[in-house]
Design a protein that fits this description.
With about 130 residues, the chain is of the alpha+beta class. The chain has two helices and five strands, in the order βββαββα. It has one domain (about 5-125): ATP-grasp fold, B domain (D-amino Acid Aminotransferase, Chain A, domain 1). β4 and β5 form a beta hairpin. This is ATP-grasp domain-containing protein.
């Protein structure tokens, strides 16, 4: 993946988690690059992840990214990573649909919401 560098990513990205296109919770991830500009593949991924309360604009931006997924049914789970651009507006850095870290332990109801979404899908209920 190649994308323009945003200096604001040094402040950390926001990861918004959705179940069946419904926002569940978010975390703020610390910067991934080391001071040398390299990724340290031996460190724990996202050691500085902390719970985060996203703005309405961030939720709307992430929801719009999910709405653009060409699928007849909503993804059961998704993570949308955002950063702020030079004007401090949220922009999508990554839309993770395959094997996202959902940071379930970073929100008191994260795991419960995930289980509910899986159960709803298994029953064939419409979310």
């Amino acid at each position: 993946m190649v994308q323009p560098y945003l200096r604001q990513v040094e402040e950390g990205e926001r990861a918004l988690v959705f179940f069946s296109r419904t926002f569940s919770h978010a975390i703020r991830k610390g910067p991934v690059l080391t001071e040398s500009g390299m990724i340290d593949n031996f460190r724990m991924p996202h050691p500085e992840a902390t719970p985060y309360r996203p703005s309405t604009e961030e939720i709307d931006t992430a929801s719009a990214a999910l709405a653009a997924v060409p699928s007849p049914v909503p993804p059961l789970f998704a993570r949308v990573d955002l950063a702020l651009d030079a004007t401090r507006k949220p922009v999508v850095m990554e839309l993770e649909l395959i094997e996202p870290n959902l940071f379930l332990g970073h929100h008191p109801r994260g795991l419960e919401r995930f289980v509910d979404a899986v159960a709803t899908e298994a029953r064939g209920d419409t979310p």
